[in-house]
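Tip: read the tokens left to right.
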């Protein structure tokens, strides 16, 4: 009797190990390639509090490092097909959080070529676009919430530059010039998170002299720094009461508009939001926190800042990029 129980337990354990190994083998975005890996691999214009990016006319995606997997809607697939990029349907299971934080299990995947366009200029309401690059073999799960999302499984393959004033997002595989390292990043190595398609990345930040690892979540709307309610005790200033809208709903929040924040060897006063939901207790959105150009290097685990930033270009083909100093507390070299 005992031998049968032992054999059964061993068989169950073996099945669990095989299943776990199979899930790990289903990692995403391993076949990505580019027409041109030099310079900007892809560029996108951003808009809205959800940071929606347009990579081609009418083809938009939410940029969300808090989403474990990338998803695409039927409308997005139709736009690509009209452009001559036909998705290849594949069958294998994937599991992870989607763009609204729900766990999504899908047996269907699409392998897609993404044409990244660049808006050259606008004239009399006519927009002229040109394709600067094509990223091939990007994996997507079908969207179940009406959102097309570029999740961390895709984004972690790149060095991501956010141009603050141009509201543009650029993808690189090689580090562009002009950036200075600010701080090192890390990612979760917990067993329970290893089955997700993408890693969970963190940045060390100190608020009111208390350091924690903050989850990098570009899905945070309008919020730069999120802390749990129990951390309110650290602030000595009167706080403001407000409501925060997140992907998981509306939450009452206490807000400190003068929190002392340090990131790497740089710091200053910044607004901190204290509220609880069912996401990470400590989180940050670098696109809302930094008021200057920032580059998140998911490949080599570093965050960079640019001492100067690009000012918006005039909407004409002759306009040339210029730059000026930022007044951000995170400025690498503050103006005299």
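Filled-in amino acids:
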């Amino acid at each position: 009797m005992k031998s049968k129980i032992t054999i059964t337990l061993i068989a169950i354990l073996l099945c669990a190990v095989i299943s776990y190994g199979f899930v790990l083998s289903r990692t995403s975005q391993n076949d990505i390639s580019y027409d041109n890996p030099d310079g900007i691999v892809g560029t996108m214009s951003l808009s809205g509090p959800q940071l929606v990016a347009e990579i081609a006319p009418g083809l938009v995606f939410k940029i969300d490092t808090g989403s474990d997997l990338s998803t695409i809607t039927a409308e997005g697939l139709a736009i690509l097909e009209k452009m001559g990029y036909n998705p290849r349907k594949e069958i294998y299971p994937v599991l992870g959080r989607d763009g609204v934080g729900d766990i999504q299990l899908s047996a269907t995947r699409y392998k897609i070529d993404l044409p990244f366009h660049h808006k050259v200029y606008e004239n009399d309401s006519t927009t002229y676009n040109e394709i600067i690059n094509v990223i091939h073999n990007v994996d997507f799960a079908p969207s179940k919430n009406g959102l097309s999302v570029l999740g961390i499984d895709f984004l972690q393959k790149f060095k991501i530059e956010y141009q603050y004033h141009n509201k543009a997002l650029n993808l690189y595989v090689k580090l562009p010039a002009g950036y200075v390292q600010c701080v090192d990043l890390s990612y979760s190595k917990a067993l329970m998170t290893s089955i997700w398609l993408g890693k969970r990345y963190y940045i060390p930040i100190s608020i009111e002299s208390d350091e924690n690892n903050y989850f990098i979540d570009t899905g945070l709307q309008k919020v730069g720094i999120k802390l749990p309610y129990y951390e309110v005790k650290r602030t000595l200033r009167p706080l403001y009461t407000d409501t925060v809208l997140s992907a998981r709903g509306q939450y009452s929040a206490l807000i400190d508009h003068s929190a002392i924040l340090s990131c790497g060897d740089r710091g200053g006063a910044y607004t901190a939001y204290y509220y609880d939901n069912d996401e990470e207790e400590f989180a940050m959105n670098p696109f809302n926190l930094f008021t200057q150009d920032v580059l998140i290097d998911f490949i080599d685990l570093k965050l960079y800042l640019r001492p100067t930033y690009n000012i918006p270009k005039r909407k004409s083909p002759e306009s040339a990029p210029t730059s000026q100093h930022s007044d951000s507390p995170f400025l690498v070299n503050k103006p005299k």
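DSSP finds four helices and 24 strands in the chain. Confidence is low (pLDDT under 50) at residues 314-327.
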